[in-house]
Amino acid sequence: MNTDDVDRFEKLSGQLTGVYDEMSLLSKKSPTDAVNKFKLKFINQQIAECNTMLSAKYRPFDDFDQFSEDDVPQNSDVVFIVAQYLQCLEKLRADNIVQRNGTWHWRVKGKKGEPVDEKGFALIRTTRPKHLKE
Amino acid sequence: MLIRPRLTDHFGIHKSQAELDFAIQFLNEDIPLYLDPFLLWKSPAQQDQALHTSITNSFNHLNYLVKKGEVDRAVSTLVTLSECAEVGLGMSKSRRGNRIGTEQALEVLRLFKDISEYSQFGFSHFEVIQLYVAGISKDRVSDIACNYLKSFLIDYTIEQCEQLGIPLQVVALPTIYNYRKNSFDESTKVRLPVNPVDGEPLIFTPKRWLRFTPWINFDDYFKTACPRDEIFNPDEPIDRVRVLKYNRDNYDAVERYVALKDKAAADCRNDPLFSQIPVISARRKLNDLLKLKSGKDDNADSQYEVLCTDLFATLFYPHLDFAQAQSRTESGRHVRDLIFYNNRSVDFLDEIFSDYGNRQLVFEMKNVAKIDRDHINQLTRYLQTGIGHFGVFLTRHELPKAMFSNTIDLWSSQRKCIIALTDSDIKLMVNVYESKQRTPIEVLKKKYIEFRRSCPS
Questions:
Q1: Does the predicted model carry a pTM greater than 0.90?
Q2: Record: contact A72-B431, CB cut-off 8 A
């Protein structure tokens, strides 16, 4: 990963968390209601970007690419899948961050002109891995 | 083979009723709606208002004839006006009605003599004759209005047919009312579509003019405006004729009622040919359906059929127009189906038409715990009668594995597609009907796609 990937990751993970929050609300209200085509189109766009970023190693399911409109997915289906993707994104992050002086940082390849550490990695401040308790 | 064929289905016009401006006629029976002249009067369109004026003027011309002593001509005009079979509106199961008799026509014409206001100023809403003359009701009002408008309706029909590509044929109409001459043109040759069943000419009517009952009608008058205390003594049985007589002697009672109806004109709307049940009612029916036990105990099977009929006619509207629920007997078993017209309004339905030849869709209702080989054979045999090779079971649970593979084999060997809609699918359909996030027809498509994925490529 490089600093551009971190940028993309943070945008994507933020958007997907937003999708998860919205869909969770809908799912709590009516879990078996169908998701409309408008929402589904954008959710699929997010999932396609996640698939690229996660690559085969981190993807939650080998045989899931995206939702099919024809399958009329329900709110709870979308919440279930998006939660899986959020977990896998977190796993990818946890594998690429380190602790320095008590704070957590992405440790990724630096580009030319960017400040890098002694081994040539750029450090970008981030939060602790979610599975670690305070 | 078509169940309850409609004109558009016969000519291969794949449009749903919701998409068309006119009421689609059945070939063998009437549409249970009536042309309400009040809808023309209240219409914002100048054309409709002008047509209403022409109806009223033409009707009041009968007064002129009566005053000139040409009662016979007035009677014969009114009798001729009293039936308009070409428009196919009303309750007739054979598309044929009878005209009124001379006596009844005379009774209508007597209103011009007996009630001085009409004699002097004429009618402003001629449909009030229902409130004066026994035996004149919504069908007569509608037919009289249609006959007065026939010339306009012929042009309208030709325009609609040319837009849709419905073939026109030169036919001779026995009578067309001539507004300029206030008499009938006889045996006029015009180009009109004809009923393929009996070769009779057909005339279309715009949906916006149709109602189940006219805005001004006797029952409404009796319920809302009739001074019953003045007509009947307490506990006296209600006699319609006495009300009519009272109205003839008390013009102002009718006039007050008409004034009230004029004021409430904003509430007067045309009735759709089909109206969906409200969401709350659909939800209630779904709950009743889910509570039903499978099998025949406590009439569960017939309750299931009634609930499914109500639900599906609504859920699939406007993508599929409901034709009818039909009963048939197959190998000694009673079978109930729902039949829908396939309008090819969505890509999936178009595929069903082109791949399986379904001009209509059949849904066989089975309130059984599991579908067995006999049920599948029954539906397969029915599909062979020409309805098309796509059929649907409405049943309680998914098909057992063996039966599902049976349907796959049927598709592989004969390209017949049988799918099952279960309680959970109906639940999803009602959910999307309520939330409007997707359409119930997409749930049917989903089941079809799932089935096709299981078929060998």
A1: no
A2: no
